[in-house]
Amino acid sequence: MGLIDIKNVTFEYFRRDENGDVEEMIEALRDISLEVKEGEFIAIVGQNGSGKSTLARQINALLLPGQGEVIVDGMDTRDEEWRLSIRQRAGMVFQNPDNQMVGNIVEEDIAFGPENLGVSTEEIWNRVEETLTATDMEEYRTQSPNRLSGGQKQRVAIAGVLAMEPKCIIFDEATAMLDPKGREKMIKLVKTLQEERGITVILITHHMDEVLYADKVFVMKQGEIMDSGAPEYIFSQRELLEECGLEMPPLYQYLYFLSGQEIISMAEMKTVRAEKDLSRLLQEKYGKTAEKAAAGMKTAPLTDREIAEKQAESDMVRETVGEHTLTKGILLNHVSYSYNVGFAHERKVLQDISLGIDKGEFVAVIGHTGSGKSTLLQHLNGLYLPTEGNVYFNGRDIAEKDFPIKELRQKAGMVFQYPEYQLFAETVEQDVCFGPENMDIPRVEAQKRAYEALAAVGLPDDIYDASPLQLSGGQKRRAAIAGVLAMRPEYLILDEPTAGLDPVSAKELLQMLKKLQTGQGMAIVMVSHDMEEVAEYADRVVVLDQGKICMDCTVSEAFGQADLLERLGLSVPVGIKLLKDLGGAGVSVDTNQCRMADICGELMKLQEA
Amino acid sequence: MGKDITIGQFYNVDSVIHRLDPRTKLVFTLVYVTTLFFARNPYLYAAAFVTLAIYIGLSKVPLKFIFRGLRPLMLIIIFMVLVNLFTVPGAKILFQWGFLRITEAGLVSAVYLGLRLVFMLIGSSMMTYTTTPNALTDGLEKMLGGLKKIKVPVHEFAMIMAIALRFVPVLTEEMERIRKAQTARGVDFQEGNLFVRLKKLMPILVPLFVSAIRRSNELALAMDARCYHGGEGRTKMKPLRYKRADGFAYIFVVFYLAFMISMAVML
Predict the structure, then answer these.
(1) Maximum distance among all Cα pairs of chain A, rounded to whole angstroms
(2) Rounded to whole angstroms, what are the CA distances from A135 to A157, A189, A460, B82?
(3) DSSP characters for A245-303?
(4) Is the CB of B98 inside 8 Å of chain A's CB atoms?
């Protein structure tokens, strides 16, 4: 018998109308059976609403089966007597880092679980000490959780669960709100815990690249397990994944493309574990003569000085636009911004930023956490005014007394991070009308614009009268964006628009933005942590580091500077890396391609070689 | 916005006062504030002043920080002092201009009131400057522990308070973000009369409220998952234990109280 035994579990919940009568019954789980052995690493994947979180909550008795049974370490979850023991054995890390912290100080939060279990004071101190080390959080021990980054908060949450000495940890979409770097670090930690401590891991996620570490993957759709197996097997079930709204990691997408085009064989494909392997494989097979390949491979890592020189000589940073030369568009001229000016803890967040945004551009702003991206965005529509330098809109300084700031807010629409948390009106339609009505546009016209905006974001018209709270996560996000689009902006500024969305919703959202750019000539300025989406959708990249612009160039030029990007904690998409490697090895491919479809087009040339 | 408000915050340094048991500080604060109510002569104010000066000196909390905490309340204090100054009747009139009149009794009463308010505010905010919110709630929980016998849910109240304190910065930040987002959608919060402005708060308050409910649901689930089941059988990472310094502090409190009472009675 396994550590966790789920037998024929069915679970349904009821949606009730205002009178408390059952409106609808939703079967969240349908006859689910699965077994997890001690020390295993299990991944459960599926789209939002597939029932994966409901299943996870069955395991630590936060939910109880309607039919069937769940046995954890020999204990039935329906037996109230065992409830605390079950929760101690099977700990859980949740999605939102903020909403699972109880303590006001990191160490006190970690102690919360053991305190509840009645562990002796001395032992609590030992466990706190030990788990802080295990999660690499010692230096934050006495800090307030509010000062930590999302990834750090999640590590504290893991420490808090570890301090209860569980046999199993369930990660309920615990990486969904983290940036790619934070996710990677967390998954590595999870893997270490499994390997070194023998902790059973149940990972709930919609990011397929995370399941590579798992022993076994379960794919869920509409409350049912569709298939299960080793990650390699699951990746080969492409139709099934598509049907379940999941997306393969880019490396595997390329692999299947290449094997589909018979550029590599199935046997060769099986040897590939990382981008490096694929690159070597293709170079060996299609690279020119050995000498040429060697000549092409001279790209030894650059020293810092070389990078600096290279940066200086190339026009990576666009020439600063002279006084008022840009009479159209948004122009930041030598902008600096500091918090707490005049206080001891004055902090310069932006330093001497010069940047012009033209109509119809798609600009991605990238940089690691704390590099000043969000502050920069808020300068574009006058939410922040620079402490030094000027911002011009269509040639006028926005700090001028009689500058029509409302007009700027309308023309440069701003979508904040997690914009769905700003929805407030009774119906979706009213919420979307809010912006235009603030611009003193009459009701009828505002409604017309609202409908246009809602159609543009692809929301069906039967939800216009629904409460925003009833929508799904992806729909809420789109309704919030419609609220900004309804003001008919010429520039759309977005702060991490895809954060926390599942891959399918994220893709739809980005395609919609691209359509707004190409169809209506709207300029899109977007902060993103996901380099794959930057490469796929943006035309121009602005890289920030410690409040300064260190690159402002085309996507292809930016990703050509792999060394520099990696030093800033940013990565280069798999496909771009692959092309550059091949080009370096003397294979005749256009190394400037960035979009997946174009890269595949280039890879097709290998067929002829 | 919230950055200037230091009152109620914890000032993180290590000092004798910081290390005292929260219960000791609670008792002292209670005694200090109560005695101020009865202070009717300059000697008592002098004693209260010296005590407060020692307290602040030992705590290592900078004066600048303390005064900054007072600033938002200064307007109210000045207003109350002025009302006292001009309204308290008395035989001896020091100053008269039209209907404005200052009597000797009024002057004395206004000065005392001003001192009393300032001392009280500083005295009680010293408590929060030198005690972490958790220690504070622990202290309250332990001191009021006796009430559990008459079914007052003391532990639950303490837990609610601790969680509220935990989420104040989270929600403040969220409010700021929502305010900016609605500003970006064209709301001008400075515009219009009071009623119009209040109405404009709805697009901030509604999402904030919804978010608070969502957060509390999720937190409740997370607490369940971490085996929270009320105060019964719960142990503490940092249980409250009196140390030697607390003994000295209590002796001081007794002396202070005795002095204040005797001075008040004798003079």
Answers:
(1) 80
(2) 10, 7, 45, 58
(3) T----HHHHHHHHHHHTTSS-HHHHHT--SHHHHHHHHHHHH---HHHHHHHT--PPPP
(4) no
Judged by CB atoms closer than 8 Å, whether chains meet at B237 and A100 is answered as no
Q: How many Cβ pairs within 8 Å bridge chains A and B?
A: 148
Q: State the DSSP code for A473.
A: H
Q: Is the pLDDT of residue A291 over 50?
A: no
Q: Which position has the token pair 């000085």?
A: A305
Chain B residue numbers touching A435 (CB-CB < 8 A): 185-186
Give the ipTM of the model, two decimals please: 0.87
**Angle in degrees, CA B95, B98, B103, rounded to 5:** 30
Q: Which chain B residue is nearest to residue A116, measuring alpha carbons? A: B234
Q: For residue B160, what is the nearest residue in chain A, using CA coordinates?
A: A102
Taking the C-alpha atoms of residue A17 and residue A35, their distance in angstroms, rounded to an integer, is 37
Query: CA A172 to CA A208: how far, in whole Å?
Result: 15
Q: Cβ of A409 and B207 within 8 Å?
A: no
Tokens matching residue B3: 């950055």
Q: How many Å lie between the alpha carbon of A148 and the closest alpha carbon of chain B?
A: 12
CB contact under 8 A, A438 and B186: yes
C-alpha–C-alpha distance, residues A291 and A545, integer Å: 38
List the end-to-end C-alpha distance of chain B, in Å, as a whole number.
47
Question: How many angstroms separate the CA of residue B230 from the nearest CA in chain A?
Answer: 8
Answer whether B61's CB lies under 8 Å from B152's CB: no
Query: Residue A336's closest CA among A548, A143, A168, A528?
Result: A548
Any idea of the CA torsion for A399, A379, B177, A345, to the nearest 10 degrees?
Answer: -90
Q: Is B203 on the interface with A (CB under 8 A)?
A: yes
What is the layout of strands, in order, in the sheet containing A548-554? A412-415, A491-495, A523-527, A362-366, A540-545, A548-554
| C-alpha separations of A552 from A532, A541, A598 in Å | 18, 6, 23
Subunit contact A409:B185, Cβ cutoff 8 A: yes
| Direct distance between the N- and C-terminal alpha carbons of chain A, in angstroms, rounded to an integer | 55
Residue of B nearest to A124 (CA): B237
Residues of A in Cβ contact (< 8 Å) with B162: 102, 104
* Neighbour-count burial for A356-391, b at 16+ CB within 10 Å, e otherwise: bbeeebbbbbbbbeebbbbbbbbbbbbbbebeebbb
Q: Is the Cβ–Cβ distance between A589 and A603 less than 8 Å?
A: yes
- Nearest CB to A62 within list B178, B203, B225: B225
Give the closest of B132, B214, B239 to A121, CB-based: B239
Classify residue A431 as exposed, middle or buried by CB count within 10 Å of its CB (0-12, 13-18, 19+): buried
Comparing CB atoms, the residue among B162, B203, B222 nearest residue A94 is B222
Give the percent of chain A with pLDDT over 90.
Answer: 64
Q: Does B104 touch chain A (CB under 8 A)?
A: no
Residue B236's H or E segment, with its range, is none
| B170/A98 touch (CB, cutoff 8 Å), yes or no | yes
Q: pLDDT truncated to tens, each residue of chain B (267 aa)?
A: 344 556 667 888 889 999 999 999 999 999 999 999 888 888 889 999 999 999 999 999 998 888 888 888 888 999 999 998 888 888 788 888 877 888 888 888 899 999 999 999 999 999 989 988 778 888 988 888 888 888 888 888 888 988 888 888 889 889 999 999 999 998 888 777 888 888 888 999 999 999 999 999 999 999 999 999 988 889 999 888 899 999 999 999 999 999 998 888 887
> Quick check: A93 and A102 in contact, CB under 8 A?
no
Q: Supply A346's token pair.
A: 């004055």
Burial of A320 (0-12, 13-18, 19+ CB in 10 A): middle
